[in-house]
Every structure is written in structure tokens, then in C-alpha cells.
Amino acid sequence: MTFRIHTHGRLQEWVADANGYFNDAGLTDYVFDQMDFTDFNASTQDKPSGAYQSYEKGRDASISCACHWTVNMAASNAHGQFWRDAYSVSPCGIFVPAESPVRSLADLADVTIDVGYQSGSHYATIQALETVMTPDRIKLNFAGSPDQRLDRLDRGEASAATLFGIQLYIAEQLGFRKIADATFMIVGMVPEGVDPADVRRYYEALRRAQHDIDLHHQRYAAFYLREIPARYHQRINVDAFGPGERIVFEPYSPAMYEKTHLWVEERGIFDAARLGRANYAEAAVTAA
């Protein structure tokens, strides 16, 4: 069966493919599919949707990933299992236009911030802001996918937006100001029926790619263009981008799982029917 890989706007898959690491690991029948964000509806729709809803509907991939908050909740609702043996950390920040009077996190009180619904930017923004303000001062606008949020910021339609990875680097080059960094962890999701041994082979290849990126990421920066809408290609310089999302080859532990699930539950981000009750052993998968 062909192993279907959802790329995530990062370099690792492209480097592993170019350098033959998937084949070396024994993963020879694979294809890349970029994530389809057309179902990420904005708050102007009858019902917003984001990363979590994409797992409810079922992603057509043998391995995909999303922020660890969403993957945690999806796995606890049996919409797949998360890969236990690695997680990622991505650069993430809250951005405003250059002329904005906002200069600090505290200045974002009552300022509407574009985020994705039940997606990484949703949780990351709350985590960043709740350190300096009460929940009633946090104003979020569910504005769709990462590219849609960047587009709104670029068109002058957003007062602020939370961006990560590629969109963060583009925003920096276009002159938007980062008010604060935000936490953004990512975990892989494996649907039912996928051989965990193939997932292990996939991560073996990514480990080698991560080493290459750590040593000299500029050699591979051109791969970013495969993940960036063509409308931005002439306005940016990917050679000046950073290394982006970094995969950490350590377990996403029971403590991480439980603390994250409790954090989401305490903030009422999901209704009771979607809180899930799967324990760590049921929600996680490994080939060990």
C-alpha cells in the first residue's frame, strides 16, 4: 500500500526525499500530498472549522501532523493515534502591521487577533495572552488557514494574526512586527490501518534529514518555495528563512498528553461531547 505523506510546510520531508533517506529506510512506495486547507472555514461561515475538524472528517494520509493540542484531542476521540516517539517545535508569533500602536502583549487586550479555529494558533494565542490578561480581554477571530490569515494581514484586513513556520518567515520579510513568540508543538497522527513499521521508517528518514538541516539549512531553503503560494514568490527571499520546524526525537510522554488535555478542557475550547476519554495507551502508537 502506498504510504501517503502530508507535508507540513517544513523542510524535512523534501530533504529526506531528495537525499534518498526514505528509500534507505525501506520506505520505497510513498507519495507527497500537501494539506488541503479549503475546509478551514472562517468565522463568517455558519460554523467555523479547522485542524480538529479535518481529523473528524478523516485526512487521506498515512501520516499527517498538526499542533499537539488538536492531535491530542483528536486521538482521545479515536480519530487516529498520535505517534508517540517524536514531536516538533515550530517558530510561532503574534504579528501586527508595522504602523500598529501595539508594542507588547498587554497592548493586545481587546485587540482582535486572527487565528485558526481549534488549530495551533487558537491555543498558542490563548497560552501567550493569558499570562498578562484575563480571558475576557482576549479577542479571537477565526480566520481560516495559515495562508488565509497571512493574506488578511497582508491586505490590511487584520489588526493582528498568529502565524507559525513559513507564514511567520514571510510576515517578517514583508515588514510585519512580531509582538511576542508563542509556544507551538506539533505531533504526528496515524490513522487506523497504517503499519507502524512504515511510520518508524518515515521518522528514521526524517531524523537523517533533521541532521542535514541542523548542519546547513540554507542548502535546502529552495524547498520552501514548494510550500508557499506563488503570489508570494517574487516578494520574499527564502534563502534568508530560518530552519523552521524542528523535529525532536523524544517521546511525547504521558505527562505531556495529560497536561495538554487538561489545559484544553479547563479553557472550554471544546464542548463536552468532543473532550474525549481515551487514555494515553489507547491514543498513542509506536512500532517499538
Model description:
- This protein is α/β, with parallel strands linked by helices.
- Helix content is 32%, strand content 18%.
- The protein has helices spanning 12-18, 21-24, 51-57, 68-76, 120-129, 146-154, 165-173, 196-216, 254-266, 280-283, and strands at residues 3-7, 30-34, 64-67, 81-83, 87-89, 92-96, 112-115, 139-142, 161-164, 177-181, 185-190, 246-248, 284-285.
- The strands form four sheets. Strands 3, 4, 5, 11, 12 and 13 form a six-stranded mixed beta sheet that branches.
- Helix 3 packs parallel to helix 4 (68-76) and helix 4 (68-76) packs across helix 9 (254-266).
- The chain is globular, with a radius of gyration of 18 Å.
- The mean pLDDT is 94.
As residue ranges, the low-confidence spans are none
* Biggest pleated-sheet summary: 6 strands, mixed
Shape field = globular
On the 0 to 100 scale, the average pLDDT is 94
Order of helices and strands: EHHEHEHEEEEHEHEHEEHEHHE
Overall radius of gyration: 18 Å
Q: Please tally the helical runs, counting DSSP H or I stretches of 4 or more residues.
A: 10
Cα(first) to Cα(last) distance is 21 Å
Number of strands: 13
The residue fraction in helices comes out at: 25-40%
- Helix-strand makeup class: alpha/beta
Note the beta-strand portion. Answer: 15-25%
Keywords, please?
3-stranded antiparallel sheet, alpha/beta, 6-stranded mixed sheet, 288 residues, 13 strands, globular
